[in-house]
Amino acid sequence: MRAGSLNIWGPYRDAHNKFRLKISENGQTRSICFRTYEEADMAKARLRDDIASQQVYTIGEAVRQFCEHLAETRGIKPESVAWTGAQLEWLPQDAALSSINQERAEKLYRDLVSAPNPRTGKPLSSATHHGRLGLARRLYEFAIKHDMCRTNPFTAVTPIGRKRVGKPQLRIDEARRFETKSLELAQAGDAAALGALLMLHLGLRQGEVAARVARDVDDEGRVLWVPSGKTKNARRRLKVPEVLRPLLLKLIETTPPGALLFYKGDRVPPTNYFWSQVRRLCQLADVPAVCPHSLRGLHATLALEGGATSDAVARALGHGSFAMTARHYASESSVDNAKASKVSTLLGNSSAQVAANAAQAATASAAAGPDADQLVGLLKGLSAQQLAEVLAKIASPSN
């Protein structure tokens, strides 16, 4: 445990009835011994309470240390750390951490829910204020762990409203129109349209598209490298669809190896860049406006509908497991359809094999006869059980 210039370690067991606390304060180190572990642990708790009562931390100071912790120990990117700090600005920064009790925490959250979004003038979405409440809980968990306060007032605060999971997606015919228009524009040199097509075909995040440079296109346009991303699972090598390969090759012809592919500038574009680009493409394709994340979700949905395994879809999206994919990306119906397809496949394997064997045997038996085509046609009209009976009779020695 650490607080200010005071450090406390232990309890350490030195003997059967000797438990030691090691204390370091202002460069001086000393030890205190107790007969039982419980006595030592209680003494440590009293010291911790004394320290907490002497040192008062503000919420603003706790937010600063929390963000430093995310950057230094969790490896969170600077822009994500800055976003986290901004999401906690609804808390009173100058107030002491210990001054927020459950009643005040509930009022702060209710005020957050009712306050209009300064950008749109509309109330915050349930997902947004749920997320900010969750961050407040994490902030206090961090503060408790680092002896800045003793309780978490946000633990018992109940989220208001139902959070919508996933993003609205284009339907299949709409996705085809979106793809057709985007291909037309990409062929005319619209790099942003090609970036949107990668989101749809490969399930890339908008940030992953925005950060791609020319050297990430490899093996004559067949491979796209994603060396890093939002999570540790984001690192992957993706096969480029043939329809996009010539467009990527054409783009890298005029782009230096280290230059951004889908944005003209030295820095990765802001997050709202591809939002506006995807909405522009939706308008041109005459389909409902969706966001870049929706294209990623549509990729998962269509991949599952097309027969891809859940693990393959999760890996393509850079997820550690399919649970995240199913919860936030693939539509519920596609997940259910994929499960039903697996069941149908398992149930149909035996009858399909019987049918194939029966047809093969019947075709071979009748190949020399003049009515072979007619016989095959009759066999195709039989059920799996009837075909099995025919196969059994053909294989019988008495026939």
Explain the overall architecture.
The chain is an alpha+beta fold. It folds into four domains: 53 residues, no CATH class; 87 residues; 159 residues, hpI Integrase, Chain A; 58 residues, no CATH class. The chain contains 16 helices and seven strands. The strands form two sheets. It has a four-stranded antiparallel sheet with strand order 1-2-3-4, covered by helices on one side. The protein has a three-stranded antiparallel sheet with strand order 5-6-7. Strand 2 and strand 3 form a beta hairpin. The radius of gyration is 31 Å and the shape is extended. It starts with a strand and ends with a helix.
Main features:
alpha+beta; four-stranded antiparallel sheet; 4 domains; 7 strands; 16 helices; 9% strand; hpI Integrase, Chain A; 399 residues
What is the element layout, followed by pairings?
Elements: E1 2-3, E2 6-15, E3 18-25, E4 28-34, H1 37-54, H2 59-73, H3 78-87, H4 102-114, H5 126-145, H6 172-187, H7 191-202, H8 206-210, E5 217-218, E6 223-226, E7 236-239, H9 245-253, H10 272-285, H11 292-305, H12 310-317, H13 322-328, H14 332-366, H15 372-380, H16 384-395
Antiparallel strand pairs: 1-2, 2-3, 3-4, 5-6, 6-7
Helix pairs in contact: 2-3, 6-7, 6-10, 7-11, 11-12, 11-14, 12-13, 14-15, 14-16
